[in-house]
Structures
1.
Amino acid sequence: MEGLIDSLLIDLFLIQSPTNATDVIKTEVSVSKKKCFLHGVCTFRVRYADPRETGDRPERQPTMLHSRLLRYLDEVARSGSIRGAGEKLHIAPSAINKHLLLLEEEIGEPLFERLPRGLRPTPAGEILLAHVRRTILEYRQVEAEIRDLKTLQKGEVIIATVTGLASGIASTAAASFCAHHPHIKISIRAMSGREILDALVSGEADVGLGFNLAASPQLEILWEMDTRLGAVIAPSHALARMESIPLAYCTSYPLIFADRSMLMHGIVADTFVEAGLSVEPAFRTNSIETMKRLAAASESIAFLSKFDIAEEHRQEILTYRQIRDRVFSRNVLSLVRREKVGHGLASLLLAEEIMGVLGAMSG
């Protein structure tokens, strides 16, 4: 079986004659068996043959990465006959049969049962076909990725995210991406979590970044992390000297709550209730930007994740402190994208930039 795999992989590299197109290349190949086939050492000795020497050798196909033999095997199995495979591939059945017999001789096992109504793969044939089809599929995926490279010369990628992340993580990643791919336009659109999902599913956005996004079979999760809420305060705040803050200490200062339209409101309000603390927030807003501005300009305390204040933390405008004695319920940050996306490679590369920023912050 090892000899078979070596033969198949060697045939991936087809040699095109630099001379007349009617020339036929004969190639002798020797393979070192000292290592597994993925790392075999191949030596090619090539000579150009007179076409008369080739007999009924199958007509040479245009140069391609993967062996004709892979396509022959796959089509014989699908068609159930050599004649049917020949008609589908526009190859003489005798040429396909010749390749098949030579391969069976090399393996030392029949690959197909010859039945009155056609051919059926043997157990050895099934093993080989699984390898062949994986190889063909992977090659098609590589072809698609190469085609996608063209999208990096132009186009637009749209990020759908919430306001707090739009001005920090998304902007940082977008700037880095554009430095490497200046011909791709980036649009950053701030919206609610529900709107992020709708935009992705409808195709109005390519990448989504948000908190507590609902699962969808149409979306692929690229990265996610539980980003617990904590106290967000100005660096000059009296509590900033503490590495973590007891929840009860927060009640001595003006509190900033998300309004009831935001999931964050329930997370924070329920935690105070469970702790037996009765509070009345000084501010309510559905804008994360407003929460951050209020916290930066006063002794007020907002309850956000450290990802919400990435840019403000970098500029030393705000700081984040964990709550010591209470744990807010889960606040999952997710990076998602559509399963089938027009600018596949561009959106994936942008997503990798975002994941790099997220990874640096969570490390």
2.
Amino acid sequence: MLQKLPTVAVAPWSPSNRGASLGPRKFKMTQPVLCFHGLKGLSDDLEDRESLPLPGYKWRLIISYDGTRFSGWQYQQSTPTVQCIVEEALTRITKLERDHLCLVGAGRTDAGVHAWGQVAHFVTPFNYDSLEGIHKALNGLLPLDIRIREISSVPPEFHARFSVKSKIYKYKIYNDTIMDPFHRHYVYHSVYKLNPAAMRDAANHFVGKHDFSAFANASRNDRIPNPVKNIFRFDVNEMGPLLQLEVEGSGFLYRQVRNMVALLIQVGREAVPADIVPKILASHDRKELAKYALSVPPHGLCLFGVSYKEDHLQHPSGRPATSLGRHHSISKCKLPFY
């Protein structure tokens, strides 16, 4: 049973009070959610977290960012990360401390890796009448290489990481003699002519449930993650000189996607056969992969999307509608132009 909590006064947001809390003048903290504080350097799977009960409301963000100048998603004190900058904007708007916001991302993208559909959640002790105001304020505070595409209300059961059904990553390769300079920050350039058909054959060997220990780099933590992951599909699509490798799976180990792509590139160069994949998988040894391929650079990789359990996305009653942003409009001039 929930303890009755006091009503707390909150300053209303206005353009002149840009950093104040966006919400009604009064709120009641009535709904329990779980606050999780993350640890750095774990696999892209369930992380070791210390859960604390916190009354409040939970909100989901869909975030797009150019990872070129960031040291990844995960919060770090010494270098700029996406989580750090988003938290700073949320702190200014809500007037809540970082530990109270409990911002958690779906995946820890590495330095230089981009995202179109990163998902995160945060909590507040107050409800909102509308999400359009905080949506506009967030994008107004954030740098142009980070955009909040969507804000929605979610039930207490939703967790940006624990509720995940699958994640989709895309890796782009520019396969031509001369690199297109407009793609240089987002596409890996292969000067070697690649064989897409051979790469598709090799990619099919990754599909299914396997132990991916041979494709995981060592992460900086004491916990040993579950190396068994389920890959639902691994597509190799040709778009002119661009090759787009798209993989969807239940989860991924540290550097797993980039290591799988590195081996596919070697197969595409016809340096190794496609059936080398099951041999390396069966070894469960990262050193076995190192005999054939090195990791590819991060800038070609993008976290494209995350799918969730449907019951964890149910819109709670009494919550504002989802905000997808809004277009500006101008009123018609009543005076004729001469």
3.
Amino acid sequence: MSQILGVKFNDYGQVYYFGSGPFVVREGQHVIVKTDQGMGLGKVILIRQAPQENEDADGEGYKPIYRLANDKDMESVAENDELSREAFKFCRACINSHKLGMKLVDVEVFFDRSKMVFYFTAPGRIDFRELIKDLVKEYRTRIELRQIGVRHETQMLGAIGNCGQICCCRRFMRKFVPVTIKMAKEQNLFLNPTKISGICGRLLCCLSFEQKGYEEFHRMCPRVGKKYQTSLGNVKVLRSNFFKKSLSLLDENFDEQEVSIDEWNEIVNKPPSEEAKAEAKSRTAGPKGRRGGRRPARGDDSRSDYGRDRDESGQDVDLSSLEDSPQDNSFDEPVQEERKRRPRRDNGPKPDDSAPKSAGSAPKADETGSGDSDSGAANKRGRRPRRRRRRPPRK
């Protein structure tokens, strides 16, 4: 019975399937296979039996292996590894001499040395035509410079992740799937770049592992922050718990309750129960009143207490007696005396001394007499002197 072999050409590469053909292969052996780019040596990591009905078509479905690897082939592989290390050092020296903005990651030498692949990373496009000329002149074979991303760089080099284990891309991942920030939001993770990013500086690849489960859970859950009519009354969905498969609800009493998804499906879109109605009725049956207190009636005697206060002995004191009354002129006397001592200023234009005086003009009265006449006129009219209001200080 023929076998289907899963073959890997390097530790971080993909698994390719071949047919065993006439050979009997065990897991862990090395085989020589034909590829589109020439002969290659790989390691068998997986063996499964082909179905009976596909036994005749085994050669058509999978390419057969060329032969099993021997000791001479293993020596060639060791020589190729040594050549790749030397080529890595030489290529790095050439990059420094040409002052190219690129980082060399790894060098791969094919089994038959028909081609050498140099993997590098760079922020943009690099003109490496002179570098290829130096490499072809040194090794006399086909040279390929392949630019890769930071994820593939970490996959080739390997590293320890935030979880303390070897990075998933190095251990078992063979293809990268796109990871977005939306996945971190749906999984209720803290959007801290140091927590949700890996060694490569991109979002963690493990965010995509559980994304399918979160999508199925969110399809079963109601919308967070929305109000629903349930048998418990009007409730608001606060949060959802993926691990417990539960919801946190806020009821009309502002109490938080936690129900499972199955319980939510039973109570949603149902009229309130008798218990919920009784609780709502007990809340609304309490005495009603204004928050600010009862407003006094028009005929209430409390309005007559305006301007009254109590002294230290507890007796009422009428504060309205401290207000100025228009009949009391006791405040006018000191003000009038002050006005008599301080004559009124005349802000009018000063008469010119050089102007000739008319013969019939009366003698000029002194300033003190004019001030007395003004104050006397004001007293005759019965007016109170105007007091200046004090302005509040600016903040």
